[in-house]
Amino acid sequence: LDINGTQIEVVDCFKYLGVLFSKNRQFAQAKKHIAEQARKCLFSLYRKIRNLDLTIDCQLKLFDATILPILTYGCEIWGHSDLGLIEKIHTDFMKHILHVKRGTPHIMLYGDLGRYPIQIAIKKRVVGFWFNLITNPDKLSSLLYKCVYCDLVHNNRTYKWLTFVKNIFDECGMSYIWLNQSFDGSRTLLLNEVEMTLRYQYSQSWHSAINDSTKCINYRIYKTEHKYEKYLDILNPFSAQKLINFRMCNNHLPIEKLRWSNVDRVDRLCIACNSGEIGDEYQKATCPRKTSKTQKLH
After folding, report:
1. 237 Cβ partners below 8 Å, 6+ apart?
2. In a designed cystine with 254, which of 190, 207, 226, 279 is the match (CB 3.0 to 4.6 A)?
3. Does the pLDDT of residue 274 top 80, yes or no?
4. Is pLDDT at 244 greater than 90 in this prediction?
5. What is the per-residue burial (b if ≥16 Cβ within 10 Å, else e) of 103-114?
6. Which H/E stretch holds residue 19?
7. Given this model, what pLDDT does residue 214 score?
């Protein structure tokens, strides 16, 4: 490629300010690179957790202070695309510190730890970037503003990033802000309102998810609020782990073991007796065979 007599090399991917830009204008490589960097830092964090014997609450704060900034670096420009790879780092970390199996439902992890998906933080930062763009005193002479608004909006061309911003405002019930392309308040106020709305909506969807999930039949009995559970720090590690395993279905009962064999729920029967009852936690506590053994001991 020749520009004004200067030969420019054409490459498939290049790094600018720490973010990978691809020739196809997608950010898959950028997110993959960010995820790899975060995983490397996670190994160091895991060592600190083991050596210092930190509480679950402290481990989460360390994640937010050291890993989250890596996962959200540059998200203002790539956050509009699929975030599955980024969210997986977060859920893998939660499973690691709780010592639960990979198949543990994410809604249980978010529920007991009182966590929210990283996409909420990313959406907040994208809105903050948009606010800076439209309130910049020199926006009319800004190359970025011209590229995004003058060329793409005024000529009725579609742009994924702009559509993403619009959808955030629509999702938060703030479509008027997008229509006016302005906000009569401070940047902090706008971001707080967006974050609070998105968190509230996630809490509502979380409640719906545990009520609809067949794995959460017992979980929803004792888990009614999306908040951090204090038992994680109050109980000793052994007792806390036993309770975690019970709450999050990390057991070897037929109700769980036969799930992976695609056995219908009604056919996952207790193997310790001939009662014909489903082999879940309730059956284990009331199993006739277990009861008879207890009676003999007395």
Report:
1. none
2. 279
3. no
4. yes
5. ebbbbbbbbbbe
6. strand 19-22
7. 82
DSSP 3-state assignment of 257?
helix
Token readout for 207 is 């409640």
Q: Which DSSP category does 46 fall into? A: H
CA-angle at 35, arms to 34 and 41, nearest 5°: 95
Query: What is the rounded CA–CA span in Å between residue 205 and residue 211?
Result: 10
Q: What angle do CA 261, 262, 266 make, to 5 degrees?
A: 110
User: Which residue type occupies 287?
Assistant: C
Rounded to 5 degrees, φ, ψ at 128 are -60, -40
Largest CA-CA distance found in the chain, in angstroms, rounded = 96
- pLDDT band, very low/low/confident/very high, at 291 (cuts 50, 70, 90): very low
Question: What size, in residues, is the chain?
Answer: 298
157-212 confidence digits (pLDDT tens): 567 888 899 999 999 999 999 988 889 889 999 999 999 999 999 999 999 999 99
What are 162-168's contacts with CB under 8 Å, separation 24+? 163/80, 164/79, 164/80, 164/126, 165/126, 165/127, 165/130, 168/123, 168/126, 168/127, 168/194
Quote the CA–CA distance of 285 and 241 in Å, as a whole number.
19
What are 237's two structure tokens?
A: 């590690």
Neighbouring residues of 14: CB distance < 8 A, sequence distance ≥ 6: 20, 21
List pLDDT tens digits, range 74-126. Answer: 999 899 888 999 999 999 999 999 999 988 999 999 999 999 999 999 999 99
Q: Please list, in sequence order, all residues whose beta carbon lies within 8 angstroms of the beta carbon of residue 123, skipping any fewer than 6 positions away.
A: 79, 168, 194, 198
